[in-house]
Amino acid sequence: MTKTLYDHFAAHAPESPALIWEGETISYGELGRMVDIAYAEIEKADLPAGLPIGLRARKSPEAIALVLACLRAERPFLLPSVELAPETLARLFAQGGASRVLEPHGPRSESASLRAIQEPQVAADEPSHWPPAEGADEVSFMLTTSGSTGLPKIVPLPVGAVDRFTDWAAEQFEIGQGTVVANYAPLNFDLCLLDIWTTLKHGGCVALVDQDRATQADYLADLVTANEVNVLQAVPMLYRLLIDVSREAGRTFPSVKHVITTGDKIPATSLEALPELFPNADFYNIYGCTETNDSLIHKFQGLSEGDVPTQVPVGQPLPGVRTLIKTEDDSFLEGSGTGELLVSTPFQTRGYLNAELNIDRFVPQADSETGETIWYRTGDIVRRHDDGTLTLEGRADFYVKVRGVRVSTQVVEQAIQEHPEVVEVAVIAVEDELAGKRLHAVVRREEGSKLNSLGLRKHCASRLARTEMPSTIEIGTDPLPKTSTGKVDRKRVLAQLEEAHVNG
Fold it and tell me: Which of 167, 183, 214 is the last residue before a domain boundary?
């Protein structure tokens, strides 16, 4: 009988450290007892057979125990962001077919009970899309997309896909007993499949970052140092925070052996600082989507001063991953050039839970070896160089026409982000009576910085064509609005801009 992720977890030595949370270490035995309690609650609830469980779970040891209890019970579960609006969560739980919504209660909770089991509060006419086309028995994790283009889509992951990914990640990053892996992402992120679930499957220890303190540079630096973290995966913002600490206090992190950047393009200024920050580490850039998990990896061999690329490659396919590049004329690229990236991976979902959303996103393509393969259209535009290297050019839906010229707002964002005093940026296309569209940049600068639009324009002049220069640049120190997955929410930036225009 094939061992499940939970079986692997339960087989580890009870005294081995499993989690580090708020300065305290929780052993596999202690975490296992928490799983026992959660599992008993699930069994006592007498939930309908075969239906998923909805989890409203902010990252904590209790939340991790609840997920493991669902895996033990062989119950599929839907794990959306707890930051979503209550109405959105209710709709997602209904669409996911959740018979109950479970919410863990940790030590901070005023409630005395460990679990709250609730009926999903949803409109009576909200449609359920459960079960997925491949069948309920094959699904464990159900994650959601960011929702940046509307209601988040539900992504059911087959058990086999999760197993294959967690085994690959453990081998690639040497995760096993004695390995300490930092977990920066919220619990609902697909990044946790590496940070948390790979680590617990293979006997390592997860150092959990408290999401309430995820932007506190000193706290993050202390967590990496005090726990002698070996593997660190995060979006570029974390590395920027650690770089700031290093500049102020001269700190480095010699325990880290594997540094993984993912999610967004990392600025060259940050890349240049990484070798000194992590003197004993190998550096990787990983590309993937919630729908496919990680697909491509690029390792920076001997990254050193003067050896930092201006644009980070997205890398080569992981074992078993295949890629296609589709051009504007619907043909597939053979040599160098640009087009939309399509991937087929051993780790991917077979489609969204709502099968109607699969049209033009999960596409069958005849294959001489397998007969037919389902490819996922990523919506990302990549460039294949003469040496076969792939670099990310931007999103297909972020290309706009400005005075008749096709411009990528993400290329503009990347150029602005390279300024050392820029923390984050959003470039959006707004309506213009004369030009049709014009570019407006909203920039968050560092605290104490005196960066102004003139200085930023000078910075961009050597990096952007005239047609790519924003017509207006708005600079401040307030954080930009974010999606549920922590990325800049350009729709809300545009809405705020339009509201200010109306009120102004």
Answer: 214
Q: Give the single-character DSSP code of 29.
A: H
Q: Tell whether 283 is covered by a domain.
A: no
How many other C-beta atoms lie within 10 A of the C-beta of residue 218? 14
For 369-425, the pLDDT digits (tens) are: 666 689 999 988 898 988 888 888 877 777 776 765 678 888 899 889 889 999 999
In Å, what is the CA distance from 443 to each residue of 263, 408, 417, 425?
Answer: 19, 17, 9, 4
Residue range 133-180, pLDDT digits in tens: 777 678 999 999 876 556 889 999 999 999 999 999 999 999 999 999
H or E element at residue 24: strand 24-27
Ramachandran sector of residue 22 (left: φ over 0; alpha: ψ -120 to 50; beta: rest): left
Same-domain check for residues 426 and 387: no
Q: How far apart are CA 123 and CA 119, in angstroms?
A: 12
Q: Which domain holds residue 479?
A: 403-503
Q: Are residues 13 and 42 in the same domain?
A: yes
